[in-house]
Design goal:
By secondary structure, the protein is an all-alpha fold. It has ten helices and no strands.
Length: 135
């Protein structure tokens, strides 16, 4: 299923209905999920919704392999800050204004975390605070 053609509501409904496979989810899919929730609620609530959605869709995530809690929290925090500074009317506009998050999230996070910190099993399971620069 191509999520780019769906409205935000249809996108969330498709997730709830289990219509996405692991092969149909990518980095942009995850950013869109976060963006939709951040547009609807303050970042701590949006974070809880995103985490709950990802955990409820283990068939997509293979959580033991792919889910990374620190990366999820840090990404949503950065997105929330940017949206408060420069609101976007749609996800396409958000991607255009935040090409660094879309194209090289690893480099963005490297401003805040040492590689060994993000690569740790602890950071994958729970939130680890930045060890270079605050979020």
């Amino acid at each position: 299923m191509d999520n780019r053609t769906l409205s935000d509501e249809a996108f969330l409904n498709a997730i709830k209905q289990g219509e996405f496979s692991r092969d149909s989810t990518d980095h942009s899919w995850h950013l869109r999920l976060a963006w939709i929730h951040l547009k609807r609620a303050p970042w701590p609530i949006a974070l809880a919704e995103v985490v709950a959605t990802l955990r409820a869709n283990q068939h997509i995530m293979s959580l033991n392999e792919r889910y990374h809690h620190t990366l999820t929290v840090a990404t949503l925090r950065i997105m929330s800050q940017r949206l408060s500074e420069q609101p976007c009317s749609d996800f396409t506009e958000f991607k255009q204004q935040n090409a660094d998050l879309v194209n090289d999230l690893k480099a963005v996070l490297a401003q805040h975390y040492k590689p060994e910190t993000l690569d740790s099993p602890t950071a994958r399971r729970t939130f680890v605070s930045p060890d270079k620069k605050p979020l």
